[in-house]
Amino acid sequence: MKKFLKILCIVLAAVLLIVGGYFAYVFISFYRIGDKPLEVAAAAEKEMETGREYTILSYNIGFGAYESDFGFFMDGGDRAWAWSKERLDENLSKIASFLKEKAADLYLIQEVDIGSTRSYHRDERPVLTDALKGYSSVFAQNYDSPFLFYPITQPHGKSRSGIMTFSSFRTSDANRYELPIETGITKVLDLDRCYMKQKVAVEGGKTLVLYNFHFSAYTSDGTIANEQLKLVLDDMEKEAGEGNYCIAGGDFNKDLLGDSSVYFGKADKEYTWAQPIPKEVMEGRSVRLVAPLDESKPVPSCRNADSAYHEGQLVLTIDGFLVSENVEVKKSDVIDTGFAYSDHNPVYMTFVLN
After folding, report:
1. What are the backbone angles phi and psi of residue 56, rounded to the nearest 5°?
2. pLDDT over 60 (residue 27)
């Protein structure tokens, strides 16, 4: 009996040592990338014109994994990786073809993996740049996580991911700026949030300041995303005050319609992760929110990926844009892909620089 208890104690001590060592590894290896200049690749040469209508498209591509039958473990589903490398590649190819077909002037893309277990260590950037030849491109990393041993049956592993902007106009001064994240244990589950800021040439020596972002979702409450939004708004107002045009877009992880169920119906379950933007965040601002919506035929921009896409699943609009007062918005809507390629539908905006 004593021998058995001794062996049991040794086994328990070993387990505790391994678990403790793993948690130490996770927290010791955690770091923030910080602010840094970014490289502009394959720079386009032409300038934008005032008084002319342009289109910008924003799309969270869900690292190429979120086909309509995909449920992600952090949303309540049972998948940590894309279904297979072959299906991932096929889906990425369809996303790239879709982007090329739309022929937008500017693209804001989120969740582009560059070496993650979940996407079979595929660098997804070349698929997009090959489809959008002739565009300037900029990439900012916003995720470099330690190896996550969960779920046990299919560990999420290590993730490296980011946001990517494409412009068919001359682009310069691209920079990555760090956003605040939670300081508790949930920080290791969140992305290393940032926003990308770059300058696009406009005729007459003017400048469009373009922003791309992906705000926090996996937090204890929604206040961090509010703080992230405030920082971008402050930056935009500063640039607009200097006479520049400003457009920002991406994944807010906020219900941009206030209550999306008014347009899309109630979900079959209750969820709290996507709250409306508090009124005080936007009050008194010269920058305004553009929430994509066609009220006669409303289409949501996101589904809750707790399982395969189905009727009654939570759907809402969390993707959209912010513009300064000198940008005239002509139209903004969601493109209905049926969530075939991602848990997000792409959103677009047509605009004029006044």
Report:
1. -120, 140
2. no
Query: Cα–Cα distance between 275 and 301 in angstroms, integer?
Result: 15
* Token reading at 176: 């990555």
Q: Contact at 8 Å (CB) between 91 and 127? A: no
What's the CA gap between 299 and 29, in Å, rounded? 41
Q: Which CATH class is domain 33-353?
A: alpha beta
DSSP state string for 3-48: HHHHHHHHHHHHHHHHHHHHHHHHHHH-----SEE-PPBS-----B
Q: Are 120 and 86 in contact (CB under 8 A)?
A: no
Segments making up each domain of the chain, as ranges: 1-30, 33-353
User: How many angstroms separate the CA atoms of 343 and 303, rounded?
Assistant: 6
Q: Quick count: other Cβ atoms within 10 Å of Cβ 212?
A: 30
The one-character DSSP state at 72 is B
**The predicted structure's pLDDT at residue 25:** 46
- Among positive and negative, which fits the CA dihedral 247, 250, 256, 260? positive
* DSSP 3-state of 104: coil
How confident is the model over 227-276, as pLDDT tens digits?
A: 999 999 999 999 999 999 999 999 999 999 999 999 999 988 877 778 99
3-state secondary structure of 237: helix
Nearest to 62 by CA among 111, 107, 96: 111
CB 322 within 8 A of CB 332: no
pLDDT in tens, 105-139: 999 999 999 999 999 999 999 999 999 999 999 99
pTM: 0.92
Look at the alpha carbons of 212, 127, 121, 91 in this order and tell me if their dihedral is positive or negative: positive
- Cβ atoms of 321 and 301 within 8 Å: the answer is no
Give the C-alpha separation, 73 to 352, whole Å. 41
- CA 147, CA 297: separation in Å to the nearest integer? 43
% of the chain at pLDDT higher than 90 = 71
Report whether 71 contacts 306 (CB < 8 A).
yes
Is residue 225 within 8 Å of residue 216, measured between CB atoms?
yes
Q: What is the mean pLDDT of residues 83-97?
A: 97
